[in-house]
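User: Is it possible to get a 3D structure for a protein together with its bound compound? The compound here is phosphoenolpyruvate. I've pasted both below.
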Amino acid sequence: MARKKVVAGNWKMNLTPSKAESFIGEIKDKINTDAVEVVLCVPYVNLATAQNALKGTKIHVGAQNMHYADEGAYTGEISGKMLAEMKVPYVIIGHSERREYFKESDTEVNIKSLKALKNNLIPIICIGETSKQRNSGRTFDVVRKQLSVALDDMTADDVKKVIIAYEPIWAIGTGVTATKEQAEEVCAAIRKQIEEKLGKSVADSTRILYGGSVTPDNAKELFNMPNIDGGLVGGASLKTSFEQVVRFE
Ligand code: PEP
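Assistant: Yes, that's possible. Here is the predicted structure of the complex:
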């Protein structure tokens, strides 16, 4: 079965609840489609607002992080169990900004992703190399290791459900987009690695996204590559022209 494309917006720490409500009001009819799975990953305080504003549409809401524990003395954190009860179906795990500023390790990404799955959430697991790693020819090794740890202890069914986002760090928020060939060769290697671990049918089912300075101008060529099943989109998801990214065909 063909993989359904996914376009997930990552709002990062942007838009207060009132601004979120009015922005969703502006774009929701334009990004409401069956052709693509559309997800808006919003700040925690906007989850309920976004859910209300999106009622009656096919657009999904996602969170940008979660803790691996169900509950406990982790001031400032929220759990997968909480997201599940709120019926938030997606959660970004291991975004490079979390890895860099909050020191999240590959192991933590794995534990969080397993916990997300246990709560019936779909983790959008981010992996990708720095410019230094790319320039020293280590892209494939870095991504391979990140993926290998992220998928540790996952079953075939788990890996069919997860979404992998290949996000080269040098392309995130920089305006420097990977070429379609650069993005495709890493996404193809990711799929190959899944095949080696769990077989072709799992690899053929797993959605692998590209993220890093996606815009209405480059979405079409990137998302139509054979191993790229859509995108994780930061800055461009905060503009009304996000519609053009969603309708990239
Ligand atoms: C992101 O935040 O995951 C991202 C890819 O950001 P941008 O599209 O702004 O580069």
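Residues 9 and 237 are 5 Å apart (CA to CA). Strands lie at 6-10, 37-41, 60-63, 90-93, 122-127, 163-166, 207-211, 230-233.
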